[in-house]
Input
Amino acid sequence: MKINIITLGCSKNTVDSENVAGHLCSAGHTVFFDRPRNDCDIVILNTCGFIGDAKEESVNTLLAQLQAASNFNRRHHADGRQRTLIATGCLVERYRDQLQAELPQVSAWFGVHQWDELVAYVKTLAGQQTPAGQRPSAKAPSALPFTAERTLSTPRHYAYLKIAEGCNRHCSYCAIPLIRGRHVSRPIDELVDEARNLVASGVKEIIIIAQDTTYYGLDLYGRRRLGDLLNRLATESGAPWIRLHYTYPTDFPLDAIQAMRQHSNICNYIDIPLQHINSRLLHSMQRGIDREQTLALLDRFRQQLPDVSIRTTLIVGYPGESESEFEELKQFVADARFDRMGCFAYSPEEGTPAESLGDPVPEEEKQRRVDELMALQQSISLQKNLSRVGRQYQVLVDRREGDYYVARTEYDSPDIDDEVLIPATRQLPVGSFQQVLVTQAMEHDLLAKLL
Output
């Protein structure tokens, strides 16, 4: 059968969808990712339930796919073809009962620990095994999504490596521990083997992800072992680039910094969501760190990794955030001069500690604060990019768009960071490394010529 997998949300969801796709391909099905053509027999929607906007997008996509399935079924009524819509992922994990009651047209619902049950259900639809006699609804968790087989949805030259599932942090605003459960690390040997296989298949860039990568190993080995994992991946995987995402500032494992200093194939890049700088708000957020400790950690990064690119994410409009505390955050952004920054407005999440604080900051005020921070960061980004004019960089070519190839330096992660535009004066293989000279800078992109 033809199966379309639509993935919403973060890169952790992307890996889950790729694992499901690998098993379905092995069962003989044809799997597409986000296929625009409306010709598939099954649509699997992997939803996000992180914040309000993400939940709204998931619900709207569900409704749109139900309408598309209804139209498909009417058109193909005579030839007996029927489209099946299956919903899975974080939104389903949180709101399965409500969704199932309101959208009975969806054929089946699977939470974030039911990937093997989802694959088994598809096999029943295809007549590949005997149905169990009822639609699946039980929450029978497995420790981790299976990883024996995987079909990449990313371009073939980069892939995400999910090193753990779940989260043991208790940030007051975050529902992820309620959705994904406690932190479960994968063994180092297993991760190294997967990375080797990815590189053997043509992957040039391994992007390390988890809900909290800096917690890695504590549950499995009794101590944090992110540094050990980075050393093993750098020396044994064969990956030209290794990139670190989703780190946490509290108890940051300093041996990870040492590994980055030691190995040239670990990108000078740290993704570290800080959320805020005001100590009172950080305490209310249950982040386990204050202003002084945050500043000290950033200083350590820049002292030990002078060339590092730091990406962060911030929250504005958290309950009780005063104008003076927001101004403190603005000044922090101006002083810290992050290389990359994202910002989102606080939204209350059911079941989290911050829910009891209410949502006193008006939405329009939240948006004003988001806009002010991002405008400030935009000017910082332009200044930093202008300083790169006349410098040479190695870049990884992601794709061609019109008259340009789109590439990235080691300081930029795919989809979320800056890009390098190279005039297509000659053909470049996608996924190849090229040496370029930056000739022009914009707020979020660089223009370069080949050397």
